[in-house]
Design a protein that fits this description.
With about 210 residues, the protein is α+β, with helices and mostly antiparallel strands. The strands form two sheets. Strands 3-8-4-5-6-7 form a six-stranded antiparallel β-sheet. A two-stranded parallel sheet has the order 1-2.
């Protein structure tokens, strides 16, 4: 019995150590993602929402153009995650889970645009990342998390929570592009929040409904 107890203890210690290593790696990933998002605010980007044919994988619209999703895509790409490829591959496997057919009357994959649509990213992050609670307390939103909004009239928007706080409200700021290029602003509760996620890249363990 003593040997069995020791074996169980050893397994428990190994699991705890692996969990600690995983948590540390995830914290470091979010730290790098936040730094990449903030770095984007130093770029001049014209808000150009049109359809553009781009290479696959690793494709991007011209560097001086883009919309809100492009800033999320670029921040993730800076830390080694290609959302164009990840979204495309998941849509190939589960196309019916995505809103394309109803929202855009699209019946086929399109690697030029699929990952650049906020509703598609919402589905992807909920499937491959962590879906967090939509809360009305600022402290429930942490750096590295993704937030989506409805700007009104079913117009979607997305941004990244970063580790700079507003001097006026004390809230973490958001890096987003709502028309004036990538900016860091205190806009968390400016519109109706429709989604709240964390995504650590392909291969990360998926946890549904996680609430801190």
């Amino acid at each position: 019995m003593a040997l069995v107890a020791l074996a169980i203890l050893a397994v428990g210690l190994a699991v705890a150590q692996a969990s600690t290593v995983e948590s540390s790696a995830r914290r470091e990933f979010l730290k790098r993602l936040v730094a990449a998002a903030i770095e984007r605010t130093h770029h001049s980007v014209r808000y150009v929402p049109g359809y553009v044919k781009i290479p696959y994988p690793g494709g991007d619209v011209p560097a001086d153009t883009g919309v809100c999703t492009d800033e999320v895509i670029r921040a993730y790409r800076a830390v080694g995650v290609d959302l164009q490829r990840e979204v495309h591959e998941d849509m190939k496997q589960s196309f019916s889970a995505y809103p394309g057919r109803l929202r855009w009357l699209s019946w086929r994959l399109d690697a030029n645009i699929d990952h650049r649509r906020v509703p598609n990213l919402m589905v992807f992050f909920s499937r491959k990342g962590e879906t967090l609670a939509i809360a009305n307390r600022a402290e429930d939103y942490a750096p590295g998390e993704l937030v989506t909004w409805d700007l009104g009239g079913n117009v979607p928007h997305i941004g990244i929570v970063v580790d700079h706080k507003s001097g006026a409200s004390g809230r973490y700021m958001i890096v987003h592009n709502i028309g004036q290029g990538p900016r860091m602003e205190d806009v968390l509760f400016d519109w109706k929040i429709t989604g709240h996620y964390r995504y650590f890249g392909p291969g990360a363990r998926k946890t549904l409904g996680l609430v801190r």
